[in-house]
Amino acid sequence: MLPPQVNRLTVQEAADRYVELVRAKTVTGALSPATAEVYARDVATFVRLAGDARVLDDLTGEDVDAVLLAFARKPDERLRGRGEDGTADEGAASDGASRGGRARGPAARGGPGQSAASQARFRRSVSALFRHAASAGWVHLDPMAASSVRARERGGLRPERRALTREQAEGLIEAARSPAPPPEPGGPGGRRRRADQRTEVRDALVVMLLAALGPRVSELVRANVEDFYTNDGMRYWRIFGKGGRTRDVPLPRDVAAALDAYLAVRVAGDGEKALLLSWRGRRLARGDVQAVIDRVRQRVEPGRSREVTPHGLRHTTATHLLADGTDMDAVRRVLGHSDLSTLGRYRDDLPGELEVAMGSHPLLRRRGGGRDGQTAPGGESGPGEG
Q1: For residue 185, which of 118, 172, 229, 382 sits 20 to 30 Å off, Cα-Cα?
Q2: Which residues pair with 274 in a beta bridge?
Q3: Which CATH fold would you assign to the domain 166-181+195-342+351-360?
Q4: From the candidates 235, 283, 315, 337, which is the catalytic residue?
Q5: Is the pTM of this model over 0.85?
Q6: Which of 78, 314, 320, 366 is catalytic?
Q7: What's 1-77+114-153's CATH class?
Q8: Catalytic annotation on 337?
């Protein structure tokens, strides 16, 4: 039944009211702060693309399609705000859009814009806005019902995997461990940083945590020093994840060593709890993490270097843990998922993986440690023979 009278709010007015409601849900625990901010960010993007002064009820299915297509072509904002050498000062990546920064990633070079997953997420956020608008009497009809633009579902192999190969991931980790030489004045590295502005130890920790544990970037930047603790000689990170869920993940020895090295030089102001700080002493923003990865990647040998996002390193963690035979439930707990089926979208194929699996098939191994085609000591036949 159509509402007798519609409150003809502008797109901006409707978005402001909706975002206020979404953020209020974090108080009751109905939404996590990170999820609420994703909704808020998507709605703000919708306002820019649809036009803030337009009346929400005047938007048609064709208008929504135009917004979805514009979003699909939009460059990935995680690659904004870089300097001429591809790096960024702390804060540049996170507020590059407000400064009019230009993307320098694949999208800026004419490649694809938003991924299918990002497009699907944006569509869900816009749909949620219009569902609320319909129930609140801001629109006569939900235009999403007439929208036809949808991101193509993932199928088959991607032209370029999100996960780094083992060689690429090891190259990134080795570069993070190696101290970076100070840039020459006037050289390609830009201005020389003072000793208190050097961030190599922190950057190493960022890369090690992302590559070894695969946290969400929101979980990484929210981490506080007090979230890391020691139990029976093992270092742990208590990660506060989506939906208010927490998980305690043990740190590999090398990651724990990187953590200790960073804590020894970390300089924070009074009461600052954040683990990862800019050289100005402020908590790192989500966009700053991409700049850290890019800065480290510049020191990787060209043959082992490839662009990667923080989420791509999450894929890398899942892919190599599973390929190495790690129990799927253990991988699920490391990544912080409630359902095993979710691991499918974090799993990428690796070259030669099937050959390795078939070369050491567990049902065809000889007793006593022999492999396929080999006889066990003493001539004992394996299972199923004789």
Answers
A1: 172
A2: 224
A3: hpI Integrase; Chain A (1.10.443)
A4: 337
A5: no
A6: 314
A7: mainly alpha
A8: yes
